[in-house]
Write a structure and sequence with these properties.
Helices cover about 75% and strands about 0% of the residues. The chain has about 170 residues and is an all-alpha fold. It has a single domain, classed as Ferritin, CATH 1.20.1260.10. α1 runs antiparallel to α3, α2 runs parallel beside α5 and α3 packs antiparallel against α4. The longest helix has 30 residues.
Length: about 170
């Protein structure tokens, strides 16, 4: 059901999703060290979501009679100069993921693999949400730049995010 080329590309994206989780945990660690527990919590939830995204690729490969290949993951960036830099870095990372999902979708269409297209369509929509979330937080951080009280308010707001596990059959 999967060509070797598509299987390889899906395995690479599975690695990218697990790397994303690793990156967001590093960001959570930065926020913990800066006494911003709300932002740390937000990033931990982001990391959990990325683990589920990686698992979605894993499950699709298994269901499509493909072969999963867990690949080495590079160490993420751990040092940041500000919360704004963290979220800007996160947005650039999400833009990279969006481009990779688009390339995967193009490959699935080229190979006329409709099952892969359907699975990837969920990620296309998800990436719009991911980039939007990071962009909104960046705009808020820019508004409160230099205002410690404003930063703490953003931190408190982000700390309200809760993890909602996907429904059965969902991501």
């Amino acid at each position: 059901m999967l060509s070797g080329k598509l299987q390889d590309a899906l395995n690479e994206q599975m690695k990218n999703e697990f790397f994303s989780a690793y990156l967001y945990m590093a960001m959570a660690g930065y926020f913990q060290s800066e006494d911003l527990p709300g932002m740390a919590s937000w990033m931990r939830i982001q990391a959990l979501e990325e683990m589920i995204h990686g698992e979605r690729f894993f499950n699709f490969l298994c269901d499509a009679a493909g072969r999963t290949e867990l690949r080495p993951i590079e160490g993420p960036k751990n040092a940041f100069s500000s919360p704004l830099e963290v979220f800007e870095f996160g947005l650039e990372h999400e833009k990279f993921v969006t481009s990779r999902i688009g390339q995967l979708m193009d490959l699935a269409r080229e190979e006329r693999n409709h099952a892969a297209e359907v699975m990837l369509n969920w990620f296309v929509t998800e990436q719009v949400e991911e980039e939007s979330s990071f962009s909104l937080i960046i705009r808020k951080l820019k508004r409160v730049e230099g205002d410690g009280r404003g930063l703490l308010m953003v931190d408190q707001e982000l700390g309200q995010r809760t993890f909602v596990p996907p429904a059965p059959g969902g991501a």
